[in-house]
């Protein structure tokens, strides 16, 4: 990678992330030691969900309110965890301003860091009392008193050792600080909202218009050229990068239904919005480059993206390196065949998403399990897939003047072009020399990075260490700002048109 650039949190708001194009960036050394898992609970207290570092009001603890272990929450898709609090996800999702789909995706999971990164503020526990159903379980420990011969619990303010209690969801004060600077900078620059500006909407409707016109002409005229099929593949990629991506991150509009509708453009180009949200919103963005929990970090066994976590030769899980770090002889040549694999990426949304929807298993792994609350969107996605295959494969065979083999070849060219374009830039985002690889993510969505593992102990530093920026504002116009991966991972709900400004 290129030379590192340090962040400047104390600088001008518009330049607080002064990362140059093509650089592999790292944060400056920590200003002071600060642990990010700072949400704690005291048995019987009135501030169960309150953060130690930030004075944010919290709901009063109701007498007799139940405790939940993380394992129990994981078995209950109608619940989700924020900090130490357990909320009714099934009830709240229909009231969520950003749409029910996002809350549904975190059913049975920890949504603490997801909320913070998407809202750039601390969770408003004080207005969520109607949905509060309990707290994370704190396993009690006892003290035997030899003088009285009795067993007593410690007073409420004392907390059990971390290894004997459920850990709270991660909370990152540094991320909140930077988010505040970014919000102020957007306002000061006259941008106002962090959502899509007018010129981005013009681009969105422009891409959709050209795409519709080209596909319509192919069917109406019965003539489809090889060059036209190639251009159609690029347009599919631009839909994925510029439209569905922002929409499925909730970044296009403050209105949830608008994001949901435009998010379905992922289904229009052959993917699945539901599976995309599961892979990116629930997993990849929270567990970036976590060798056990980030599906995007897993090229096993075809390619080897990393050699294990940041601590050389040691894994915090069983003392063994993760399976994805396993070396095979053909990895000597992966720099030669990687481009062929990338072009085959077009088959992933076309075939992989269909199988995942039918069997309701993301990537076939139990640890990536889908929330049952997402089933309505899963059924919709299956129906849209049927329409896609009719439009993308069946109708061209019926209406095109070419023979079936030639028509299928042109359809395949479209898929290879679009998939290859996407995969090429995806591979650059988090796989570069010196990229941080971590382990600490858990199946339920919580994270725990022990101090002895020498891994970055907060969300901001892990994201910067594992993400890269390439080129600049010009490429951002074509690629939906995804060449600014650092800004995108820190602020996924900011529309991509703002990334060059935030970076500069």
Number of helices: 18
Overall domain count: 2
Q: Could you list the spans in which at least 5 consecutive residues all have pLDDT below 50?
A: 1-48, 50-60, 141-148, 151-168, 311-319
> Roughly how many Å is the radius of gyration?
24 Å
Main sheet characteristics = 4 strands, mixed
Proportion of residues in helical segments? 40-55%
General description of the model:
Residues 35-50 have a biased composition (Polar residues). InterPro entries: Cyt_B5-like_heme/steroid-bd, Cyt_B5-like_heme/steroid_sf, FA_desaturase_dom, Fatty_acid_desaturase. Residues 79-137 form the Cytochrome b5 heme-binding domain. It is a single chain. The protein is mainly alpha-helical. The protein has two domains: 67-171, Cytochrome b5-like heme/steroid binding domain (Flavocytochrome B2, Chain A, domain 1, Roll); 198-503, no CATH class. Helix content is 42%, strand content 4%. The chain contains 18 helices and six strands. It has helices spanning 70-74, 89-92, 100-105, 112-119, 173-188, 198-221, 226-248, 256-263, 265-268, 273-284, 334-343, 347-359, 375-399, 404-430, 459-466, 473-479, 485-490, 499-503; strands at residues 67-68, 79-82, 85-88, 132-136, 143-145, 150-152. The strands form two sheets. A four-stranded mixed β-sheet has the order 1-4-3-2. Helix 7 packs across helix 14 (404-430) and helix 13 crosses helix 14 (404-430). Residues 1-48, 50-60, 141-148, 151-168 and 311-319 have low confidence and may be disordered.
């Amino acid at each position: 990678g290129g030379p590192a650039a340090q962040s400047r949190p104390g600088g001008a708001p518009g330049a607080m992330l002064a990362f140059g194009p093509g650089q592999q960036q790292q944060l400056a050394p920590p200003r002071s030691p600060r642990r990010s898992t700072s949400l704690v609970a005291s048995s019987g207290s009135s501030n169960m969900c309150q953060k130690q570092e930030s004075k944010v009001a919290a709901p009063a603890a109701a007498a007799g309110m139940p405790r939940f272990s993380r394992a129990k929450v994981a078995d209950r898709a109608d619940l989700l965890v924020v900090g130490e609090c357990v909320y009714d996800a099934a009830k709240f999702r229909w009231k969520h301003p950003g749409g029910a789909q996002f809350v549904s995706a975190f059913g049975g999971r920890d949504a603490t860091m997801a909320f913070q990164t998407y809202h750039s503020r601390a969770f408003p526990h004080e207005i969520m009392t109607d949905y509060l159903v309990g707290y994370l379980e704190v396993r009690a420990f006892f003290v035997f008193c030899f003088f009285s011969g009795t067993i007593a619990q410690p007073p409420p303010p004392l907390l059990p050792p971390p290894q004997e209690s459920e850990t709270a969801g991660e909370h990152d004060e540094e991320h909140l600080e930077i988010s505040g600077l970014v919000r102020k900078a957007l306002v000061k620059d006259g941008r106002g909202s962090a959502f899509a500006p007018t010129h981005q909407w013009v681009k969105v409707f422009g891409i959709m218009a050209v795409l519709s016109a080209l596909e319509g002409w192919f069917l109406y005229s019965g003539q489809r050229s090889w060059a036209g099929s190639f251009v159609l593949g690029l347009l599919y990629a631009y839909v994925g990068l510029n439209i569905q991506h922002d929409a499925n991150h909730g970044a296009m509009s403050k209105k949830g239904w608008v994001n949901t509708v435009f998010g379905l453009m992922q289904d229009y180009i052959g993917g699945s919005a539901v599976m995309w949200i599961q892979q990116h919103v629930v997993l990849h963005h929270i567990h970036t480059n976590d060798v056990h929990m980030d599906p995007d970090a897993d090229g096993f066994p075809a390619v080897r993206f990393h050699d294990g976590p940041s601590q050389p030769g040691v894994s915090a899980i069983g003392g063994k390196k993760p399976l994805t770090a396993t070396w095979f002889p053909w990895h000597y040549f992966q720099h030669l065949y990687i481009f062929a694999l990338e072009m085959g990426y077009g088959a992933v949304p076309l075939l992989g998403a269909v199988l995942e929807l039918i069997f309701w298993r993301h990537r076939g792994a139990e640890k990536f399990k889908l929330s049952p609350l997402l089933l309505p969107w899963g059924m919709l996605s299956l129906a849209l897939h049927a329409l896609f295959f009719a439009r993308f494969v069946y109708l061209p065979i019926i209406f095109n003047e070419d023979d079936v083999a030639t028509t299928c070849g042109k359809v395949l060219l479209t898929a290879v072009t679009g998939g290859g374009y996407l995969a090429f830039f995806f591979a650059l985002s988090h796989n570069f020399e010196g990229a941080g690889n971590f382990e600490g993510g858990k199946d339920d969505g919580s994270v725990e990075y022990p101090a002895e593992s020498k891994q970055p102990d907060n969300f901001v530093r892990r994201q910067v260490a594992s993400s890269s920026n390439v080129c600049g504002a010009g490429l951002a116009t074509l690629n939906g700002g995804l060449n600014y991966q650092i800004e995108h991972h820190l602020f996924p709900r900011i529309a991509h048109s703002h990334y060059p400004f935030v970076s500069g």
